[in-house]
Amino acid sequence: MRIDRPGPVGQRQWTPLTAGNAGLAFGLELALLASLCYWGFKAGPNLGLRLLLGLGAPALAAAVWGLFLAAGGPTFRLPLAAEIVTKLLVLGTGALALHATGRTTLAVVYGALVVISVTLEYTTG
Q1: Residue 36 has pLDDT above 50, yes or no
Q2: Are 21 and 124 in contact (CB under 8 A)?
Q3: Is the four-CA dihedral 117, 9, 57, 32 of positive or negative sign?
Q4: Model pTM?
Q5: Max Cα-Cα span within the chain
Q6: What are phi and psi of 73, to 5 degrees?
Q7: Which of 5, 7, 99, 120 could form a disulfide with 21 if both were Cys (CB 3.0 to 4.6 A apart)?
């Protein structure tokens, strides 16, 4: 599949930097799901709501990612600026979830890695 945009699967020259960033990006996506799950199971006042949030928040993030941001070609293509903003917002919810559970240092590190990874993804060719 040919993709004419910057990103991890675009028509690009793979270098150690781009390959490493692709691995980092995948790790950040997994960390997003884990942080939303952790937040959900900590946030709810009762078991039912904790289950709903702990399973529903990661499922919603995965659905948005699959529809608009999937590396192999999303279902719905966004304009480039909207794609970058959406990626930052979706991944940024992981940092917010970590902060909400009291993991502030981890949230800052995760957020910084998100900004670095997205910047590298759309500026390296």
Answers
A1: yes
A2: yes
A3: negative
A4: 0.87
A5: 50
A6: 120, 105
A7: 120
